[in-house]
Amino acid sequence: MGRSDNQKLKLCYIMKILSECTSREDGITMQELIGRLAEMGVSAERKSVYSDIRAINEFGEFMRVESYRKDGDVRYYADDRMFSLADIKILADVIAASKFVTEKRSRELIGKLERLVSAKEKRELNRSVYIRKHATDDDDDGYSNVDPIQTAIRDNRQIEFAYLQWDDNLQLVPREAGPRTAISPWWLVYNNENYYLGAYDGIRRGFRTFRVDKMRDVRVLDIPREGREEADNSRPEFYAQARFDMFDGEQQRVRVRCPKEMIGTFVDKIGRDITVMQKRGDTAELSFSVVPNRFFLTWLLALGRQVKLLSPQHCIDELESMCMRMVLDHERRPITTVIFDLGGVLLRLRPHEYMEELGFSEKEKCFIMDKVLLHEEWLRMDQGAISQDEAIAIWNEKYPEFAGTIRKFYSKIERFAEPYEDTERILQSLKDDGYEVYALSNYPREMFSIHERLSLPFLRLLDGYVISGFERRFKPNEDYYELFLSRYGKSASECVFVDDLPANVKTAESLGIHSFNASNRDAAFEELRAFLAAHRLEA
To answer: What's the whole-model pTM score?
Structure first.
């Protein structure tokens, strides 16, 4: 840029010099200001600089220029900035303390804040900010995920992403080979140093929450969002306020033993300041600092018998006391039977990945999501009212231009669903503890027959199952639950039921069946483990 071009920017350079080089205690004389301008290739006279300072003060948007006399000279400085040094320190401290923002990103953001203060104040800011991080640079996707999520919320679009889990080396890895989740995002909240996404899952037909830092490769889909009513009832303020409060009391070192696959559960709650003391077979011993108050001990109890508290002894004593109080405070009847829904509980439905594998266009995906899945004919198949062939004939008549799409959709339907990674482990653990396990599911007859043969190896662990497409009864109607109880000779009070739809849970509870809502699957299984553990203690 030539000297004449710089001349046009004289006012901007004056603001830059005053902003970066002055403070209330460290002003600059007029001659020094003119000298600095000259170094930048801008010539100036006192009269013109006085005029520029008046213009800056008249505008008054970013700063005011004030002056004071020292050693016989008038000194000028930038005052009344948009952000004071105290403001910048607060923002820098928040960034530095956030686990969600990596050290590299923190330094970048604080560097941008430094441009808003003088050189002297910048040195003071650097001395006052200490960056201590749990997140590594590999976690930076969590920060960058926020932008596409907000874009999708603004544009009323669904997103898809890979969702990760912690392995026994405290690294985030894919939950399964190549899984992708597609949902309708509705809100983001920042709580306990993490972002949480509230979203509607059209396949599981429920509202769910996701840790944003465990999401990877977030893509905005050209598919309108679903679940507005569920989003309106989701109460994001609850998630913003709810937290795992471990800070009421004295922090102590705690040791626990747990299965390796549960290490991630502790990382999510406590952070990465965990030491894996040793690994033996499928278990690991963990050591970490925490305030072992009732919040922590209640959470630990909910993890079930697979987790054992090893030390300190006074915490073990308190945990045992809590369990005994639970038994004494509540009448317990023997629980013999656990009943599961299939889709969204034991079985992961994967329509978006499946359609990707079939090579569907966005238009075809939208058609299947909007006109086929969980719509009238699909629900009638669930209810056993019509066969798969009859449903396809109706769709072909309604939407002849998509006849090929429908045919292709059903061509490899065994790949539409797959068991969750932990399904067999959960079922086997319950059977090892002496429980009978069953399935009670709304499921189209022909699709279940294919899945039973090709996709659902865990069915061998079940003591029985009832499928709506064969029975012509279905949830949430009471007669479907009564059919199950009658067929297997069960009383409602000895059964526990897990389903991801509130309406189905409500009916089960009205019949006296202990029930858990699995719209948040991980939380539901934690609650189930705690419930069964309390009953085992009484027995």
So the answer is: 0.49
